[in-house]
Design goal:
With 67 residues, this protein is an all-alpha fold. The chain has 2 helices and no strands. Helix 1 crosses helix 2. The mean pLDDT is 82.
Length: 67
């Protein structure tokens, strides 16, 4: 059985975890958007990107629903 203090601590930790998960999602979304803008800018400049690690990241973010 949890004491009132323990219940409050659990709630606080759950709130912190939810906020961190939200921030993680926002950061991943921002990174994917930046990667997409980079690819578009390269394309507009006529640059061919043969190896682009970010493209793998973008694909992964799409699969996990961040974009």
């Amino acid at each position: 059985m949890q004491s009132p203090y323990q219940k409050k601590q659990v709630q606080k930790i759950q709130q912190i975890l939810a906020e961190l998960e939200r921030k993680e999602t926002d950061i991943k979304r921002s990174a994917a958007l930046s990667a997409t803008k980079y690819a578009e800018a390269c394309q507009e400049l006529g640059l061919q990107v043969r190896y682009w690690p970010c493209s793998m990241m973008v694909a992964k973010l799409y699969r996990h629903g961040y974009m």
